[in-house]
Amino acid sequence: MVRPYTMTRGRTGADGQRLDLIAVVVCDPAHPVFAPDAPEPPVGPEQGRILALCRGTPLSVAELAADLDLPVGVVRVLLGDLLAAGLIRVSRPVPPALLPDERILQEVIHGLRAL
Prior knowledge:
mainly alpha, three-stranded antiparallel beta sheet
């Protein structure tokens, strides 16, 4: 068993980036390291597993932590490294302040029912 602080090299944060649990992670297939003739990316085994999981299917941070059976904090640090290297893309959730007002959504529903 490898200790979490060993996987993250003692770091507890993702260099100022706060990855939400529902942020969606996907590999960037355009990165040259994913070319068919390229050697394996220079990452650790846990990060390699993250890349393998995200290669075909976008996954949330929480799903990755569950699939890898690792603490979310550790996964956030590993994702921060992959993001800094340009190997993944992260789609962050829309902040609640930018979501439509509930009143507007209720008016849309009432309008659709009136049709």
